[in-house]
Amino acid sequence: MVQINVSNKEITLKVVYYGPALSGKTTNLQQLHAMMEPASRSKMLTIDTKDDRTLYFDFLPVEFSTAGGFSVKMKLFTVPGQVMHKSTRKVVLAGADAVAFIADSQRSAASANAYSWRDMEANLKANGIDFDWLPKVVQFNKRDFPDVKPLSEIRQQWGDIATFPGIAVRGEGVFETFRELMRVLYRSLDEKHDFAAKFSVSEEDFLKGVLCNFQPSGDSVDG
Ligand SMILES: Nc1nc2c(ncn2[C@@H]2O[C@H](COP(=O)(O)OP(=O)(O)O)[C@@H](O)[C@H]2O)c(=O)[nH]1
Ligand SMILES: [Mg+2]
Fold this sequence. Notes:
By secondary structure, this protein is of the alpha/beta class. The protein contains 7 helices and 8 strands.
């Protein structure tokens, strides 16, 4: 949960990239890391990776200051998607303020996506986080594969939740997903904690502050 230290003017936030194994969560974080100014970015931490597989988690910190003088520490995490790492996912999800769900667009991955979504719901619940309230966005990654679900079908299925197509391996859709996640995160913080009034952090300040850390290079995917 968001930690707000009014005397130090410090806000700490946790954002989790969730989804089935190999959907592109680590790649999303790597691409975000690559978009950051080399001089000011911190290291991306990847804990225990073996043959492409995240065994524990990835961690990327993003820090910025708002016009109102608050310093924001945003911690981005990924979870390991393999079924056997359920307990790790639960730990990583604890205290999450927002979630990006990275789905694999291939038709063959539909049941893995569905399983992971339910697993996320259960783990949020186990952590005392209200699923319906939690700000979230969904990325349908791997649009470059031949047998993918059409976006129109996906959007129909997912209704209200913002969905973005992605080819994370080329950086496409990564920034768009993150930007929308930041927007819904801000709105939920403002609703719960009256951010704009209490901490003089407007939506514009917040988005400008966080997004100016990134120089997007990948295009968005269409169709
Ligand atoms: N073709 C293709 N490969 C991708 C894409 N995104 C990720 N990958 C590859 O899929 C594999 C798994 O990605 P990774 O980010 O490690 O998945 P994670 O398990 O969700 O963290 C890696 O080999 C990536 O390079 C994509 O959009 N298209
Ligand atoms: Mg990974």
